[in-house]
Amino acid sequence: MARRPDLFILSIMDTELDIRALPQRLRDPDPRVRVETLRILAMVEETEALRAVEWMTARDPEPGVREVALWTAGILRAARERGHSTREAIKALYERRETEDREEAFLAELELSLTDKGKNRAWHFAVEQSYQRQMEELLRTPREENDESVPALPAPDGAAPLSVDGPDDFSDLLDAGLTFLRVK
Amino acid sequence: MPDQDTTLKVWLGRLSSAQDSATRAECIRGLEVLGHPGALPALGELFATDPDPETRLLAQQAGKSIYYSAVRQAWMSGVSSGNEQQKAAEALARVQANKSGRQSS
Fold first, then answer.
1. Residue of A8, A16, A90 with shortest CB distance to B45
2. How many domains does chain B contain in total?
3. How distant is the Cα of A173 from the closest Cα of chain B, in angstroms?
4. A1-26 confidence digits (pLDDT tens)
């Protein structure tokens, strides 16, 4: 079914519909604007407009507009009777999402992040432990095998061969007051 | 990229020439996604006059979605920044209290 070309003409011409101006649009001199506004109010079940719409059912100068106002008033009354309120619907739709859900999501995310950090710390600790064990093993075993598998570097001509049998540490030399440096 | 008004006019144009309810439904969804209050008159008209009950229901759902969003934006624009700061501070305090409560348990 193709729609009549004049339909939507108001909305195509005027894309700047301000919802705060809807009450004023009910008093627009153009009856088409009043009908359009009544239809919008019925569609969104704006129960707060019920009194204004009821007023129009009795007093609008155009019989066609009064008819639409009657239809709108019926929808709004039915919505109010079943407890619908635009204000409450919007609050339920957005405020709950914004406060409780967001807060919960934020806390859950925070918790997850802390858990992840803990997991990371544990993982780093395990890696360090494993690394240390491997290092200790490497430092312990090569002493026995190294001498055979890895030949010592050849000493330069005339120099004493490098020995692995030196002092455990150099504290003995320090205790001796570094005598080998003393000028006789 | 076309601005919102142009996109709205394109969708409204398509809707006015739609031959079947499937095409109208597609246009309604497009308008709902766009979320422009300028779509409300066309959706209101569909809600009031379309012969297909499903199309009327779809138009109402889209219309409510756009209207609620517009009303909420109008509310938000009236909220002072001081109030928002107060709310943010309260939310942070609650998070802090929850966190310390969890640590002590």
1. A8
2. 1
3. 55
4. 444 434 444 444 455 677 788 888 99
